[in-house]
Amino acid sequence: MKNVAVVGLGYFSQFHLAAWAKQPGIRLVAVADTDAVLADEIAAEYGVSGYADVDELVQESAPDIIDLVVPPSAHAGLIRGLLKPGLVVICQKPFCTSLAEAEAIVAEAEAANTALIIHENFRFQPWYREIKSFLDSGRMGRVYSARFALRPGDGRGADAYLARQPSFQKMQRFLVQETAVHLLDVFRWLFGPVSHIYADLRQLNPVIAGEDAGQMILSHETGVQTVFDGNRLADHVAENTRKTMGEMVIEGEGGTLSLNGDGALFFREFGRQDAVPVTVSEPVDDTQFGGGCVAALIAHVVDGSPLENTGRDYLEVIRLCEAAYRSDAEGRRIGLRD
């Protein structure tokens, strides 16, 4: 049995807490937040100890795994205070405040023999796990391209994001760093390393500080081209537009694989008119975010298999984000190895 503590009790922590509470072989022992009243409330709800001070939490609760669900500005300081051999630290994205800071923290964690995993959960959504299996099966043959249209429809008006995550309104870098980063990671995972990126970004809702729409074209070293087309003001056909956040189409030698807004997959063989359903074999939990991807990521960390989303690997995703903003600023295609 391993002891787990969750630090940071804002909006998204509810999904982490629910997942840890149900994870076999895990004992949720403590929670912490700078808001001591909130920490006590959540602690009482889960029957654990509540803290306003993380050092005190570590000393008294002795966690084996610490799950940080805190803003990027808090990442470096918290992680540095937790570094010790054998400890597992899971850190929410966006990771750190800059590439240089992230590189330093990753190096320090490795030197301390502390496992650092970034909580990048989109690749753990059940439909993406099925897409990965489908591609690995070879049924698509050579993959030509893929595109994802992000259309959650939650970014309109003066009250955009306020009910759920008000910090979104103040982020100077929003669409790419907070949202599209999920798809940048998925694209890398499905189609291999990226060699070049072109981005054209814009702001549609004037009440927010950052960009909320735009497109990115990625050239992968495998020869695949991927496109992210994002607009947080527009929606798509789905019972819950935040379930998948949008729709994906993958085209290849063997045909076209499509993901719709309800998390369903369809494959149309080349030359045919009809598309057939592709069964998503992973369990889908519609009561939780992204079909239960938070719990799936947590289970992956706990089961001891070779870890995905290590801090070292995730640095490449941050480099992609930085290259996207540079591309938009300079109006040109950027090479990741330039």
Question: How does this structure look, described?
Answer:
This protein is α/β, with parallel strands linked by helices and 338 residues long. The protein folds into two domains: 118 residues, NAD(P)-binding Rossmann-like Domain (Rossmann fold), CATH 3.40.50; 189 residues, 2-Layer Sandwich (Dihydrodipicolinate Reductase, domain 2), CATH 3.30.360.10. The protein is 33% helix and 25% strand. It is built from nine helices and 15 strands. The strands form two sheets. A nine-stranded mixed β-sheet has the order 14-13-12-11-7-10-9-8-15. The longest helix is centred in the C-terminal third of the chain and has 20 residues. It is globular and about 65 Å long.
Keywords:
338 residues; alpha/beta; Rossmann fold; Dihydrodipicolinate Reductase, domain 2; 2 domains; 9-stranded mixed β-sheet; 6-stranded parallel β-sheet; 9 helices; 15 strands; 33% helix
- The CATH class label of the largest domain is Alpha Beta
Which consecutive residue ranges, at least 5 long each, have pLDDT under 50? none
CATH fold title of the largest domain:
Dihydrodipicolinate Reductase, domain 2
Q: How many separate structural domains?
A: 2
What's the CATH superfamily of the largest domain, by name?
Dihydrodipicolinate Reductase, domain 2
Rg for CA atoms: 20 Å
Number of strands: 15
Mean pLDDT: 97
- What would the principal axes of the Cα set say about the shape? globular
Q: Determine the number of helices (DSSP H or I, runs of at least 4 residues).
A: 9
State the helicity in percent bands.
25-40%
**By helix and strand content, what is the structural category?**
alpha/beta
Q: How are strands sequenced across the largest beta sheet?
A: 14-13-12-11-7-10-9-8-15
Straight-line N-to-C gap? 47 Å
Fraction in beta strands: 15-25%
Spell out the helices and strands N to C: EHEHEHEHEHEHEHEEEEEEEHHE
